[in-house]
Amino acid sequence: MPSAGQLLVRDRLPAIMELMARATNLAVEARRTLPAEAIVGKPDGSVVTAVDVALQVLILTQLAEWFGALPTIAEEDSASIGGKPAALAHCRVLLESWGVRVGGKSENGSTGIDEALHLGRIDGPTHDIDACWVLDPIDGTQGFIDGDHWCPCLALLSRGTPVCAVNGFPTILGGRVFTAEAGAGCWWMPLSGGEVSQAKVRTDTLPPDEVVRVVAPARATPSQTEARLAVGRSTGHDCALVHSDSQAKYGHVIAGLADVAYSRRGNGPGKYVWDHAGAVLLAREAGAWVGDTDGGEIDCSRGRRLVANNAVICAARGLGPAIARELAERDRVEGVRVHHARCSTELRHG
Ligand SMILES: [Mg+2]
Question: How many angstroms is it from 52 CA to the middle of ligand 1?
Fold first, then answer.
């Protein structure tokens, strides 16, 4: 049965798909003339640009117009480019050129941009919320700057479970927007517009003499490269690496450009939900194996981070269980603390 969140947005899914396609195309355009001062370092060592912030404002403003300000977990906030007047000025220029109206400074000192960035903002678990947006306006900002892979990613959680997702993938198959609704499959269309067709992951077993293609980071260190190759070879196949970061790594599996993509938590605080939620649904609806190292579910209900999971694994060609086993063994050998998802009901090591 469709969830409350699903029913709320269902009729507007084609419009949301158009919105995310437009947002992606605008970012492609904005990238061509991105001034150095519009790129800002974040306290955590990552980067953000005026385009990330402007895109979040564009998307949240439009969603609020359609649905009201639903609870939202989004990556950017007023600290992203706050205190960087040149980046903020560029953000304003972008929004104006995109026809997005935001106010100036209001009585309490916040700006229209701040207010739009924080629309519906919540911080905490989502398992009791019927409909909650999860937005990363640009996943893979470093890739965006470098001309590598990046993607605007939007998911809707209903009681903590992704039920709708729309991601723009400008670098995959000539540029496509992918969408999925729980139980209704994964669909895509060219970013330039055109027909919507169904995306299906190959699930027939990879023959022994074929190479397994595993996604590795674009700027993989030698040890990361070695580890990815070893994980790939643990399936009994030769291994070739495909380079991508961000949710585009899962996009590669959905598009048939790679067989396996994964993200390990290690002893960190848990991956950000906005870096995975949409792809979890897109990949599963396309027929991929999606799960944790114990074969359990990816629990997106815990708030900003996936605190209940050790890894997000996405695989085609029947490779999921073998990859999960190998990563579980690596966690054990490396002394990684093991987490179990709340909804982990069945072990799928098979
Ligand atoms: Mg981002």
Answer: 7
Are 178 and 241 in a shared domain?
no
Do 49 and 165 belong together in one domain?
yes
- Using the mean position of ligand 1's atoms as its centre, give its distance from the Cα of residue 287 in Å: 26
pTM of the model: 0.95
Final residue belonging to a domain, choices 176, 199, 222: 199
Separation CA 296–CA 328 (nearest Å): 12
Relative orientation angle of helices 50-67 and 85-97, to the nearest 10 degrees: 50
Residues 314 and 260: beta-carbon distance below 8 Å: yes
138 alpha carbon to ligand 1 midpoint, in Å?
A: 4
Kindly state whether residues 136 and 37 are assigned to the same domain. yes
Distance 201 CA to ligand 1 centre (A): 26
Same domain for 274 and 153, yes or no, is: no
Q: Cα(139) to centroid of ligand 1, in Å?
A: 4
pLDDT one-digit tens code per residue, 122-164: 999 999 999 999 999 999 999 999 999 999 999 999 999 999 9
CB 267 within 8 A of CB 331: no
Give the CATH number of the domain where residue 81 resides. 3.30.540.10
For residue 327, being part of any structural domain is answered with yes
Nearest Cα residue to 131 out of 152, 154, 100: 154
* Full residue range of the structural domain in which residue 309 is found: 212-333
DSSP character at residue 282:
H
Distance between Cα 256 and ligand 1 center (Å): 24
Distance 79 CA to ligand 1 centre (A): 14
Cα-to-centroid distance, 16 and ligand 1 (Å): 19
pLDDT tens-place string over residues 86-133: 999 999 999 999 999 987 776 666 689 999 999 999 999 999 999 999
Distance 135 CA to ligand 1 centre (A): 8
